[in-house]
């Protein structure tokens, strides 16, 4: 009887977690879309980009509130990655990249360095992936 109740509660919690994750991911996508639209509006919708410039990305520059032509301040990616890992222990590099807007390759190399230096610890994640948590 108690086992049935526990199974039902666990099932409900898992279902609500899946629903909340979907809403979170949608909010992240909407945030990136708004940032891209804001960048386009500030550049002028009819004004073409000059040769050699790239469209505003969704990386550390936007998180830091900087213009697309400027570099992020030193350590901004590292700080954003560490904050994301603290908020969501066990996150994979892909999940951290999605949460922070930093390129996945940058996140992967940064978490590898942080794990090697002992700042982060690796842990097994679902489906054979590797997650990270603060040491």
Shape summary: flat
N-to-C order of helices and strands: HHHHHEE
The CATH architecture name of the largest domain reads Orthogonal Bundle
* DSSP, total strands: 2
Tally of separate helices: 5
Determine the CATH superfamily of the largest domain. Winged helix-like DNA-binding domain superfamily/Winged helix DNA-binding domain
Strands across the major sheet, in which order?
A: 1-2
Give the secondary structure arrangement, pairings included:
Elements: H1 2-43, H2 60-63, H3 76-87, H4 93-100, H5 104-116, E1 120-124, E2 130-134
Antiparallel strand pairs: 1-2
Helix pairs in contact: 3-4, 4-5
Structural summary, described in words:
Mean pLDDT is 79; it is low at 49-57. The chain has helices spanning 2-43, 60-63, 76-87, 93-100, 104-116; strands at residues 120-124, 130-134. Strands 1-2 form a two-stranded antiparallel sheet. The protein folds into two domains: 1-44; 73-135, Winged helix-like DNA-binding domain superfamily/Winged helix DNA-binding domain (Arc Repressor Mutant, subunit A), CATH 1.10.10. It is mainly α.
């Amino acid at each position: 009887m108690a086992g049935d109740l526990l199974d039902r509660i666990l099932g409900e919690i898992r279902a609500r977690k899946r629903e909340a994750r979907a809403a979170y991911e949608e909010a992240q996508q909407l945030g990136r879309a708004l940032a891209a639209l804001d960048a386009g509006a500030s550049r002028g919708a009819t004004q073409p980009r000059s040769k050699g410039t790239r469209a505003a990305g969704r990386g550390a520059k936007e998180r830091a509130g900087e213009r697309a032509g400027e570099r992020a301040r030193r350590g901004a990616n590292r700080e954003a990655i560490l904050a994301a890992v603290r908020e969501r222990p066990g996150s994979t590099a892909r999940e951290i990249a999605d949460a922070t807007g930093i390129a996945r390759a940058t996140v992967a190399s940064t978490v590898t360095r942080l794990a090697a230096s002992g700042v982060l610890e690796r842990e097994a994640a679902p489906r054979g992936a590797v997650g990270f948590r603060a040491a």
